[in-house]
Amino acid sequence: MKLDLSPPVLQRPTRVRFGVLGFACALSMVTYLDRVCVASAAPHIVKALGLNAVEDLSLAFTAFAFAYATFEIPTGWLGDVFGPRTTLIRIVLWWSLFTAVTGFVGMTLPGGIVLGLTALVVIRFLFGIGEAGAYPNITRALHNWFPFQERGVAQGAVWFAGRLMGGLTPLVLLVLIEGLPRTMIDPGAASADFLVTPILDWRQAFWAFGAIGTVWCLLFALWFRNRPEEKATVNAAELALIGEHKHAEAGAHGGVPWRKLITSRNLWALCLMYFCASYGWYFNITYLPSFLEEQYGVEKTSLVGALYKGGPLWVGAMACLTGGFLTDRFIRRTGNRKWGRRLFGLFGHGLCGLCYLACLFAPSVFWFFAAISMAAFFNDMTMGSAWATCQDIGRRYAAIVAGCMNTVGNLGGAAAGSLTGLILKMSLASHVAADGLNPEKLTGAEKAAGHVLGYQINFVTFAAVYAVAVVLWLWIDPTRPVAPDSKPPPVA
Fold it and tell me: What pLDDT, on the 0 to 100 scale, is given for residue 274?
């Protein structure tokens, strides 16, 4: 009897797909660097624009989230039709441009043009259009390059990288634009002593961040290919591994079954769940830095304060990896993909809501930091499951399905950006009216006192929204594709 000596049997699979994952993780880091830096630089922007407080930027926060949500599906469609390579290069160059343009806000340009608050809102909207395409097209790339049993970990790694960079961004900006005074480490040091002197001002930091995205595009264009069979360094064994349990799928298509997508209860449950998840989470990249400064007296130039401001994101980063690993491990051990994705959504969002309630009773900044960081941890434990589900039910339409989920999710972020600020303004107005204060001459302490009730209402709202997310997870079935193929894949 002859042995089968075909290449897939004899060869050890190459690991080119992990190079794809490396580029995806790097891009995820760039997206968070560019979006979180606005919240961290908000006090500088407020000053440059002559505004009173960070809630005056709520329209700019909302403009980004609304544009990000609105253009998720179109950019996902572009990725499915033209491939993630071309689509990602175009959108990263686009948003990098508007990252750099943000650095001109508040300046008087040639011709006497001043980029004021209205210009910032427009810039943030245009920036959001660009960033909208990142994660749907990353999802499409991972769908092309990874077998389903590795998707949870791959998606978890992408979100780990993004959240980690988001958490580190306040510290990066602190070192770049404020420097690192020795007094942060040694309170007894001379005030003029710096471990690291300021390197850039806040405007130059935005210009530098825009340049980073351009460099990523150049390297990505040279290395990445849309599908593994287009990459010469992928051997037959890796091709066989990636293609296991997959049908033959067209690399690009135009006939999207929109009616099936729009009428899919499964997809609607997934999208609404992500709306709830984003609603509470957006607080971390909008109002949290100002909350810590105002309510707990965290200094703008404090090293510990920078860690507190970014803490929920880097704690959440660990959960992205953990959740991705757990969902894939559960599926490998049990063969049950439905509960392999669903279980960690139920568990994560349920505990996240409880942590937001715990924020109300924090006796100090440390305990508040612990509570809100654990809220982020349990929220992000669901990320691997949620995004792997997009691949599971989307299949050849993975980018469009991911775009649908992220569209509705970021509408949740847009709603949170507006409603959180509105609740704070109403709380402050009520406090001013009750105590007969002059709203034009409020001290910092009076503003902090006026915002207390508003923050409490917001945290209760976040907890309630996560309770709804728990219920929605019970309706999500990763084994039911939105557009079934003529020959269904093996049950897994």
Answer: 96
Domain residue spans of the chain: 16-242+258-473
CA distance 358 to 367: 9
Decide: 191 and 181 in contact? Cβ < 8 Å: yes
Average pLDDT over residues 78-83: 84
Continuous H helices in 103-201: 117-131, 134-145, 151-173
Residue 195: its H or E element? strand 194-196
Gyration radius of the chain's alpha carbons: 23
Say what the pLDDT of residue 245 is. Answer: 55
How close are the terminal C-alpha atoms of the chain, in Å? 33
pTM, two decimals, is 0.73
Tell me what pLDDT residue 18 has: 92
Burial of 93 (0-12, 13-18, 19+ CB in 10 A): middle
Tell me the C-alpha distance between 217 and 456, whole Å: 43
Q: What are the pLDDT digits (tens) for 247-266?
A: 544 444 556 788 888 899 99
Chain-centre distance of CA 289, in angstroms? 17
Pairing label, strands 194-196, 180-181: antiparallel
At 476, the pLDDT band (50, 70, 90 cuts) reads very high
Whether 450 and 442 have beta carbons less than 8 Å apart is answered as: yes
Handedness of CA 431, 436, 440, 446 (dihedral sign): negative
Tokens describing residue 322: 């953990």
Which residue type occupies 432? V
Distance CA 125, CA 483 (A): 32
How does residue 187 score in pLDDT terms, banded at 50, 70 and 90?
A: low
Average pLDDT of the chain? 85
Pick the CATH number of 16-242+258-473 from 1.20.1250.20, 3.40.50.920, 1.10.10.10, 3.40.50.300: 1.20.1250.20
Report angle CA 349, 354, 358 to the nearest 5 degrees: 140
Helix (H) or strand (E) holding 452: helix 444-473
